[in-house]
């Protein structure tokens, strides 16, 4: 019998959906879906994916007929979910999805707390996830919260409230685990032509980076990991809003580069991309709303299409031109762009500044874009596909030193 993961019904559940959902829908897309239902992840899409399954109670279900898995990623800016069925030969097919901008971390950088309004928006979105999971007959799931709940003084209280009102138990995962799952979900996009890769995820409240080595093993070996307490929401709020002046934009770029210097000094990443290295020995892979937005703009899409964006490469010159173009736009112009929309118009420049810092410090010339990551990594763990846990424990001493280096940098940008 299917495991009952959800119980109760949230008071007021039949009420009209939130204003934020309506705004997202009016921007040209569904507030409650990310247009990937029916997506089959198989073959090359998963062949290089990394790590043994996580051993927790919620992950113990076997692959019986009718098994349905769900993965929820509650971030600082978004609440996103995938529901999938396992298929033959270690693949899975996404049968439903959900995505809504909730801005859980709104005001967090100044107050240190999750506001009541942000909590309400987020719980409303999580209840919609619960409804979808119930309707789809989900038998096993993993539901995680990231930087906003890690940082907020009332993060634990919020997660308890989520359980009381939705029946969902969310786990607040570490930045290390967040990076592991993101790598597990997107590592199949790494090319074997270069032996090293810099993988990053620019989130709403933090940015994670992994320096990995590709060997004959199917598991990329993680040489180093770091996380910065800077994401698109925290940067935008610390800088007074989304319309960054040129001076503020440069200040953000310079500050992010300063925070990344210890990671460079420890791993000498530049040695693999400079003239002394001969041919470039490293590649760059990004998974975040920032890079997928830029990719959509690069392709000139009239409506964002994941199937066209996931896996494409962009030259650094194109990224710079796109970023400069966005900086020259008004907030209204960015909001009217079909690949940005009104709810991201004040965040995209902050993401561009973080991305420019990464690209300037490590000028590899090309960026591969991943519209996959944390949720796909969780599904792979749930289903028991190879994932990245083995890779992330191959160099624990280095990972520990990298983590120690970043702790002292948990401060505002300006």
Structural features, described:
- The protein has 414 residues and is α/β, with parallel strands linked by helices.
- 40% of the residues lie in helices and 17% in strands.
- A hairpin with a 4-residue loop joins strand 7 (196-202) and strand 8.
- It is globular and about 50 Å long.
Keywords, please?
16 helices; alpha/beta; 12 strands; 414 residues; disordered C terminus; disordered N terminus
Q: Flag low-confidence runs.
A: 1-62, 403-414
Counted beta strands: 12
Mean pLDDT: 82
Beta-strand content bin = 15-25%
Helical content (DSSP H or I, runs of 4+): 25-40%
Number of continuous helical runs? 16
Strand order of the largest sheet: 1-4-3-2-5-6
- General form: globular
Termini, distance in Å? Answer: 54 Å
Largest sheet: 6 strands, mixed
Work out the radius of gyration.
20 Å
Topology (SSEs and partners):
Elements: H1 19-26, E1 40-41, E2 69-74, E3 78-87, E4 91-101, H2 108-111, H3 116-136, E5 140-145, H4 147-151, H5 155-166, E6 171-172, H6 175-186, E7 196-202, E8 207-213, E9 221-228, H7 232-238, H8 246-267, E10 282-286, H9 289-298, H10 306-309, E11 313-315, H11 316-328, H12 331-336, H13 348-361, E12 366-369, H14 374-383, H15 389-392, H16 396-407
Parallel strand pairs: 2-5, 5-6, 7-10, 10-12
Antiparallel strand pairs: 1-4, 2-3, 3-4, 7-8, 8-9, 11-12
């Amino acid at each position: 019998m299917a495991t009952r993961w959800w119980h109760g019904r949230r008071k007021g559940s039949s009420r009209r959906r939130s204003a934020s959902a309506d705004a997202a829908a009016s921007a040209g897309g569904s507030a409650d879906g990310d247009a990937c239902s029916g997506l089959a992840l198989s073959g090359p899409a998963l062949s290089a994916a990394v790590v043994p399954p996580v051993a927790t109670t919620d992950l113990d279900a076997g692959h019986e007929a009718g098994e349905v898995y769900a993965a929820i990623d509650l971030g600082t800016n978004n609440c996103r979910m995938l529901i999938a069925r396992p298929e033959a030969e270690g693949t899975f097919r996404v049968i439903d999805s959900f995505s809504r901008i909730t801005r859980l971390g709104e005001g967090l950088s100044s107050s240190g707390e999750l506001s009541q309004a942000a909590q309400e928006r987020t719980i409303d979105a999580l209840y919609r996830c619960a409804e979808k999971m119930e309707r789809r007959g989900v038998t096993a799931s993993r539901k995680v919260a990231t930087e906003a709940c890690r940082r907020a003084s009332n993060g634990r209280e919020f997660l308890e409230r989520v359980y009381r009102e939705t029946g969902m138990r969310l786990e607040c995962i570490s930045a290390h685990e967040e990076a592991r799952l993101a790598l597990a979900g997107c590592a199949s996009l790494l090319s074997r032509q270069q032996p090293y890769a810099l993988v990053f995820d620019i989130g709403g409240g933090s940015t994670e980076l992994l320096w990995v080595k590709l060997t004959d093993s199917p598991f990329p070996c993680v040489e180093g990991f770091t996380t910065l307490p800077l994401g698109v929401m925290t940067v935008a709020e610390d800088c007074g809003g989304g319309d960054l002046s040129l001076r503020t934009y440069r200040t953000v770029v310079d500050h992010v580069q300063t925070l990344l210097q210890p990671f460079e000094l420890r791993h000498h990443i530049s040695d693999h991309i400079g003239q002394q290295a001969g041919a470039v020995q490293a590649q760059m892979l990004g998974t975040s709303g920032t890079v997928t937005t830029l990719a959509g703009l690069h392709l000139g899409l009239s409506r964002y299409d994941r199937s066209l964006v996931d896996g494409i490469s962009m030259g650094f010159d194109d990224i710079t031109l796109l970023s400069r173009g966005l900086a020259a736009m008004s907030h209204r112009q960015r909001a009217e762009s079909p690949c940005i929309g009104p709810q991201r118009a004040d965040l995209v420049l902050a993401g561009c500044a973080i991305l420019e810092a990464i690209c300037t410090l490590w000028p590899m010339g090309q960026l591969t874009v991943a519209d996959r990551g944390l949720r796909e990594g969780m599904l792979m763990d749930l289903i028991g596909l190879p994932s990245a846990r083995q890779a992330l424990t191959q160099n624990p001493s280095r990972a520990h030193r990298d983590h120690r280096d970043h702790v002292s940098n948990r401060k505002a940008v300006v």
